[in-house]
Design a protein that fits this description.
mainly alpha, 2 domains, 2 strands, about 85% helix
Amino acid sequence: MCLLFSFGSFSVRLFFRLEHKALNMWHKLTGKNGSVAMERKKEGKMQRQSFLHGALILVVAIAIEKILGAVYKIPLSWIITSLGNGYFGTAYALYAPMFSVATAGFPIAISRLVSESYCRGNYRNIRQIHRASIRIFLLLGILSFSLMLILARPYTQFAMRGNAQNALPAIYAIAPAAFFASMMSIYRGYYEGLRNMTPTAISEVIESFCKLVFGLTAAYVIVKSGLEEFAQSGTVYGIRVKDVKYAKIATLPYAAAGAIFGVTLGGLFGFLFLLFYHKKNGDGITHEMLLQSPRPLTMRKTTSTLVRTAIPVAIGSLVINLSSLVDSTLLQGRINDLLSADSSSLINMYKGIIPKEFLNSTNLAAFLYGCFVNASNLFLLVPAFTQAFGVSALPNVTEAWTSGDSKRLRRSMETVLRTVSLITIPSGIGLSVFAMPIAALIYPSADQGPAIIGRILIILGLASAFAATETPIDSMLQAVGRVDIPVKLVAAGLVVKLITNYVLVGIPSINVLGAGTGTLLCYLITTVMALYWLWRVTKIHVNYFAIFFKPLLASAVSIGFSWVIFHFATGFISQKVAVCFAILLSIFLYFVCILRFHALNKHDVVMLPRGQKILKILEKHNWIR
C-alpha cells in the first residue's frame, strides 16, 4: 500500500516537473519570461498553448495515466481473473455511454464555442458559456446517475441471461462516477477552449492515481477476506462452496465492485481538484479584457446555442461508446445462445486453454468477455494518446476556420494528420504482430486466458490504428462546424459492428473473435469516410499519400526486422525477455527509419519546445527537408 501511494505521488510530482519544464522551454523559445500572472498583467491577455504544446502536456499526462492504469489493470486481472474482469467490463460498458456524453460530448461543444468567442474577442460571452454549462452538467450528472441505477437490473438480465446478479454490485458501485464525470466536464471543456490543457491533464492523473490505490486495494482485501472466511467456516460471505477455487470465484462479483468503486473515488477527487484550481487560478480573462468585450448573449440564447452545438457531438460520442455496450451485450448473449444450443462443442474447444472451473455454461460467457476486455485494454492504449491531439487540435483548427485563413487551416490539418500517423501506424501494426507474446507477458496466468487474449489482440491491434486516427479527424470536423458528420459515420460503423458481431459471434468456430472483427470493420469504414468528408468540407487538398506512406514503410521495416530477431532470440533466451528486447529494438529502428525517410516536417518540429535547436540538429544531418 505504501508503495502504491509513493508511486502515485511520484507520478503527480513528475507531471508537474515535466509540465513546468515544457513551459520554461516554450518561454525561452518565444522570448517570454516571468510567470503567467505577470504576463497577464503586463500584456493584458492570457498565455495560450499552441497545438503541439497543448498536446505535449496532455500526452505527458496520458503517459502517466496509462502507467498508473497498467499498474491498476494488470494486477487487477491477476486478482480477479478474466471472470471477474467480465463482471467489471459489464458494469463499465453500461457506464461508458453516460461517461462519454459527460466527458466527450458537451465539453467538445464548450471548447469549440469558447475558442470561437475568444477568437472574436467576446470574453464576456466566454464567462456566460461557463455559467450556462454549470446548469447543464448538474442536470446531466443527476440524470446519468439515475439511469445507471434504473437500467442496472434489466441490462444485466439481458446481457448475462441467468448470471445477471454477479455484475449488479459493480454497476451500483460505479453509478456515482457518472455524476462526478459530468461535474468535471464543467471545467475541462472550458479550459480546453481557452487552450489551457493543464487542468484536464492534472485531473486525469489524479483520477488514475485514486482508481489505482482505492480500487486495487479494495479488490485485494475483498478476495482475501472471502478466502479467509472459507478457510475458517467453508463459506464465502455466508454462502457454502465446495473448494478453494470455487471460493475465489464466489468473491469475484464483490471484488469487481470494489475495484470499480476506485473509478468513482477517482472522479470525486478529480472534480475537487478542478473546483479548487478554478477558485485559485481563474481563467486568465482580465478586467480590462471584459471591459473591451462586446455584450454577451443572453443566458437563454447561450444555453440554446450550447445545447444545439452539443447534441450532435454528444450523440456521436454516445454512439461511439455504445460499441462497448454492443460487445458486452451481444458477445455474452450470443455465446450463451451457443451454450444453450450445444454447450459441449464450445466447451471442448477451450479445454486445456481455460481452467476447468470456468468451463461451464454459468461462467464461460463472462470469462470469454473478460478476455475480450483485457485485449481491449491494450487496444485502447493507442486511441488514448491520439485523443490528446484531437483535444488540442480543436481550438487551433476552429480559430483558423473562423478567421478564414486557408493556409493556416491547411498547415494545422497537415500537422495533426502527420503527427497522428507517426504514432498510430507503428503502434497498431506492432500490437497486432506481437499480440501473442505481449498477451503471454502481461497476462501469464491460465485463469486469465492469455492464448484467447492474444488471438483477439491480433485483430484489435489493427483496429487500434484506425480508431486512433479517426479521433483527431472527428475533432477537426467538429472544429469546422460539421458536428453532424462524425455522428452519422459512427452510427453507420455501429450498424456494421452490430451485424458483424451478431453473425460472427454466433458461429461456434469464431465466437469471441467475431467481436474483434466487428470492431476492425467499424473503425476502418468510419476512418476512411471521415477523411473523405474532411477534404470535402474544407476543400483543403492534403497529400494523404505522403503523410501516411512514410510511417507505414518505416513500420514495415522496423517491425518486420524485429519480428525476425524475436524468433531468433527465443532459441537462446526466454520469450518474455525476447519480446521486450524486440519491442525496444523496433522503436529504435522506427525512429531511425523516420529520420532516414524524411518523414518529419520543419513546421512541426519548430512548434516543439526547443524546436529551433532540434531543427538545426536534424538539418545538420540531413534528416529533415
